[in-house]
Amino acid sequence: MKRAPSGLVPAIAIDRASAKPLYRQLYEGYREAILARRLRASQRLPSTRSLASELAISRIPVLTAFEQLLAEGYIESRVGAGSFVARSLPGDFGATASSPAARRPGRRTLARGPAPLLRREPTPWLGGWGAFRVSQTAVEHFPLETWSALVARHCRASRASLMRYGDALGERGFREAVAAYLRTSRGVRCEAGEIMVVSGSQQALEVTARVLLDPGSQAWVEDPGYSGARDALAMVGACLAPVPVDAQGLDVAAALRRWPRARAAYVTPSHQYPLGATMSASRRLQLLDWAQASGAWIIEDDYDSEFRYDSQPIAALQGLDRDSRVVHIGTFSKVLFPALRLGYIVMPPDLVQRFVTIRGAMDIFPPTLYQTVLTEFIGDGHFARHLRRMRLLYRERHGALVHAIHEEFEGALRPVGDRAGMHLVATLEPGIDDRELSARAARAQLWVMPLSACYLSRAARPGLVLGYGGTDVQEIRAGVRRLRDLLA
């Protein structure tokens, strides 16, 4: 059989003495080579075997790096031909990303004032805790004994300095721990001075909206998308501009056609809420190009990106930003427990003081006790160990839910989205009223959210949003059977 020729090996430095894993060095080296256009669209990459031989390393880190590049859309695999730089990447992205001038802040427009609160429709599917409740975590698997011991010790040894008014940004030690975690695990470019600690991602959205937008400003929002983000934007009087999403995430071309004057975009690129898609590299670069060219902002909600079951966590959009256009938001509610109420904002450096001013007017500074406890929890390795355990647990629950749906519904309910997160969407046959079905399910103690409730415009198709994070395997199987009976 004729073998396809191997691609050229680019000059990628491998530091065997570095603490950074070899697969990460390879991944970052190839990604930078693609973004800097040293590797062009459709250019053949070397085989993993020849690359491992050339670099004198094991083939395993090479395979891992290529799988990550493939998952993020930087490369593509062609059966029988090998791996190539993705053809879908924009032709001029490299010049934008690699230009030193592109990193200088451009035009800035900031918020002037607030707006009335939204009126919410009844949501019976959020009225209790139990099977399929969205955003519910496996709190029974949290290392409560370890956490309680840390809380007790910090309460007993509490310093007077921690009982006074604190920094509006949060405790310095905690912000340093968060910055180190984000740089290592999420590819975020940040320092402790660019991080603000908040009471969960919802407060992060509110603070960010108040800083960036004026009443009447257009803001792109994913459709379907997260209603909490729409609420936060509407509270400042923003004009919500619904943008369709597909398997590659937010449709940037459609957004530009429909809403060319938008001043911000709210996106969930690592795991689109609720449909579960990962925003492709092409769409990410198009979005960044739009923000730079128009002086607009991107609000990146990284709500549960730690949980992926087919690849390493997807790198944050903020790590690609060269023009300080992205505000990155994250939370510990999904990885630890919701009542913790600890989240963070990674701010553009030149807007830090503006964020501090707005936050100071809202609640002055965040509580200090849990920050100090979580700093030690992270530093002692408990956080990393808990995250590894939860990935395995949620992977098992995801698999059990998908299997049960296929077994009980035989195609009448179809799971969609990537293998990630703590929920999945299952679409229903056209003509079924998913809200009425969700209301009946709530009366039967099944907390399934209707997909149509996530749309700002007319829902494309009925469906259900099923949370499995706080539902064990036995509950999942029994719950799917009860759901089948309700649908019948």
Key features?
single chain; 488 residues; alpha/beta; Arc Repressor Mutant, subunit A; Aspartate Aminotransferase, domain 1; Aspartate Aminotransferase, domain 2; eight-stranded mixed β-sheet; four-stranded antiparallel β-sheet
Largest sheet: 8 strands, mixed
Main sheet: strand order = 3-10-9-8-7-4-5-6
CATH topology-level name of the largest domain: Aspartate Aminotransferase, domain 2
Overall body shape = globular
**Roughly how many Å apart are the termini?**
54 Å
- Number of helices, counting only DSSP H or I runs of 4 residues or more: 15
Give the overall average pLDDT.
Answer: 89
* CATH domain class name of the largest domain: Alpha Beta
**CATH level 4 superfamily of the largest domain:** Type I PLP-dependent aspartate aminotransferase-like (Major domain)
The topology string of helices and strands comes to HHHEEHHHEHEHEEHEHEEEHHHEEHEEH
Question: How much strand?
Answer: 5-15%
Radius of gyration: 23 Å
CATH architecture of the largest domain: 3-Layer(aba) Sandwich
What is the count of structural domains? 3
The count of strands amounts to: 14
Uncertain runs: 94-102, 113-118
